[in-house]
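Re: the request from the purification team.
They wanted to know what the chain is likely to look like in 3D before they choose a buffer screen. I agreed to run a prediction and write the result into the notebook, where they can find it.
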Amino acid sequence: MGWERCPVKAKHRRRRNRRANTRGFTLLEVMIALVVFATLAGAVITANHYSLRQTARLQERIQCAWVADNRLSELRLQPASSGRQQLLQRFDGRDWVVDQVITPATDPRLLKVDISVSAAGSDQPVYRTQGWIPAADG
């Protein structure tokens, strides 16, 4: 039996290989893992921020749509005449500026209503809609 086949030497070689496999990560491997993690975390945070911004914007548009629809419903319940009017309305704890323009429609029995809603203190309309109401004399 040769020295290469000796069971003691084979056992010693296996133990040495096992220790080499369980030493842990090198500094370079840890740094690369941190760079990958930081990049992914930054991407997740950016996506989350974008999602929150879009959700807030969608909520604002829905509130403006409700304000505009409410104003159009109010106009349908009362006699109205042609002209432009700007109103300040409070809805859901916020102030909204409602700009309405009433003009005669092609049908003499109707009036065309253009409504735009913007946040108080802003000139930029968030929502616009159009509707028709019965003319006062029709």
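For the purification team: Helices lie at 7-21, 27-77.
Please add any questions underneath this entry.
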